[in-house]
Amino acid sequence: MILDKIALCDFRSYGGYHEIDLTPRTRYGAERPIVLFGGLNGAGKTTLLLAIKLALYGRQALGVGTTKADYESFIDGCIHQSNLALVKPNSAYVEIEFTYGKLGQRLQYRVRRSWVKDGKVTRESVKIWDDKEELGDLTQEECQGFLNELIPVGVSELFFFDGEKIAELAEDSSGNALGDAIRRLLGLDVVEKLRNDLRVYALRRETRRADQTSAEAIETAQSEFDHLKSQVEHERATLDEKRKALQDLRYKKDQAESRLVENGGHWGETRQNQQARVSELTDNLKRQQKDLRELLAGAYPLSLATNVLGEAVKELATELENENQQQVSTALESFAKKLKKNLDESGRKLVDSTLKKTKKVKPNKSLLLDITSREHAALEYLIDKELPTISKQVRASNERVANIEQDLDTISLQIQRAPDEQTLADEFAKLSELNERIAELTADVAVRSRDLKLTYHHTIEMARNLRRLHENLSDKRASEQPIDYAIKARALLKDFAQVNAERKVTQLETEFADAFCRLARKEDVLVRAEIDPQSFAVKLIGANGEVIDKTQLSAGEKQIYAIAMLEALARTSGRKLPVIIDTPLGRLDSRHRTNLVEHYFPRASHQVVLLSTDTEVDEPFYKSLSPNISHVYEIQFDEDEKASTLREGYFWRQAAYKEAI
Length: 661
Description:
- By secondary structure, the protein is an alpha+beta fold.
- A hairpin with a 2-residue loop joins strand 3 and strand 4 (about 30).
- It contains 17 helices and 17 strands.
- Helix content is about 60%, strand content about 15%.
C-alpha cells in the first residue's frame, strides 16, 4: 500500500482546503521512501496522523470503548473555527487516496469521511471510490467493514503510531500493551470473538430446549453475566483513562520540579534555613574571636621572638654560672685567710700554693640580665613548654575563625543567589496543586482498581454459575448435533490460536533481536526477548544470558526496545503498509537518535512519513536522512488566524529547497 494523497477541509487547525502529495518520488534514479513534515509543537503535525486514522476507521481510531457521544463531541471540536472568519464552518472532511496491491493487481482507492453539524447532532458520512468509481451500493457499515478488511485497525497501529504509542510500549511493565498488539497482529481477537459467538449460539440453542424454569434461570443468569461483563469493560476502560491521566500528571509534576530547580526553587525553599544558619555561625564566630583575643593577650606575643628569647636564656645561663663561680671563689679566699691564721709558715705556704692553682674568676662588673636561678627556670619552662602549647591553641582557634568566616561567605553568596520567595510563589502553587491532584487521582485509581477486581470476581462467579446451569441442562437431554459442532469448533479455534501464536511468536523474537541489535548502542545491555506464547509476557535477555528487569533499562533503551518491537511486529504481520511516525525522537540521546536515523527510518517501509520538530530532526540528522528523503513540508501556524498552512521546505531550507536534497 502507498498513501498517494491526503486532503483536509476545515479540519482542526487546517482552515479551508489543503491537499498534500505523499507519493514517494524518485531522485537521481533512486526511490526515496521518506516524506518529512516539520513543525513546531502545536503547529498541526499530529493532526495529519489523526486525519489518516479517522479517514480509515472513524470512531475506532479513538480506541476501544469510545462511545458515540464521546466521538461526536470529539468531532465537534475538530471542525475548524477561525478567529477571523465571519461565518463559522459547520462541516469538515478528510480524504485519502492510496494504492493497494491485491492478488497481483494495483488498485486505486479514495476514501472521504465527512461530518456535518446539524444543531446538536453531528452526522458522519463515508464514501469510497474504486478507480474513480464510487462504491455507491455500500451502506455506511459496509463501507467501514470494507476498509477494515483492507487494513485491519489492529494491524494499522503497528504502522501508524506516535510518541505516546512508543512511550506506552516502552513503559509497559505488565505486558498488556504488547499482548494486545500481538493478539491483533495474529487476529486472535477475531478468533476469540468467533469462539464467543459460537458459545452464545450453543447457549441459545440449549436455552430453547430447556424447560421454562431452567430457561428463565439461564436467561436471568445470562442477562446478569452480560451486564457484569459490560461493567467490567467499562470500568477497565475508565481505569485505563485514569491511569493515563495519572501518568500525565506525574510527568507534569516532574517538569514543574525541573523548572523550579532551574529557577532556583531549591535555594528559595531553604532561604529561611540558610538565614538561621548565618545567625548561628555569627554567634559562634563571636565566641571564637573572643577566645582568640584572650590567647593573644597572654604570653603568645613572646612566641613571635623565640630566637631572641633563646639567645637571652643562654646569656642568662652564662651569667648565673659566672656569678656562682665568683661566690665560690670569694668564699674560698675568705676561708683560706682564716685558715692561715691558725697555721705555721709552711702551712700558710701550702694554702697559698693551693689557691694559686685554683682558677681565678674575674668579677662581672656589668650584668646584662640580672635574674635569679628561679626566674631563669621559670623563663626556660615558658619558652620550652608553654609557648609551643599556646601557639598551637592560637593556630587552632585562628583556623576555626577562618572556617566559620568561609562558611559565612558561602552561605551569604547562596542567599544572594536565591530568588525571592515571592518570585517562586506561582511555581510552588502549581506544584502543590499537581501534588493534590496526583494524590486524589492515586486514591481514585486505587478505589477503581479494587472495584474492578470485585466486579471481575463477580463476573467470574456468574460465568461459573451460568456454566453449571447449562451443564445441568445438558445432562438432562441428549446432545444436539449443531451444539456439538459449535463446541468442537470452539476447541478447534482454541488450538488454532495456540499453534498460530507459537509460530508467530518465534518469528517475532527473531525479528526483534535483529531490529534491536541494529538500533541499539554497543553498551546497551539488552540483546533479545523471549515471549510466552500463552500470556505474551516478555522476558528480556542480556548478552551473558542473564534476565534483565525492564525497570533497569535506561529511558533510551526503553525507547529503542519499543521501536524495535514495533518494527518486529510490523514485519511479522507480513503486511506492506506505509509507516507514519509522529515525534519519534523525543526521549532519545544523540547516539540512539543517530542509529534510528541511519538504520531504522530509511528501511522501516517502502514509504515512511515522519512528523518532527526542528529539535528532533535537526540539521545534522536532516543531512543524514537526505539521501532517503523524497520531499519535505513545513507546517506553519498563524497565531492570529489560529490556522495552519503547509509549504514545501524544512525550516532552514526554504530558500534552497529547489536544489536537490
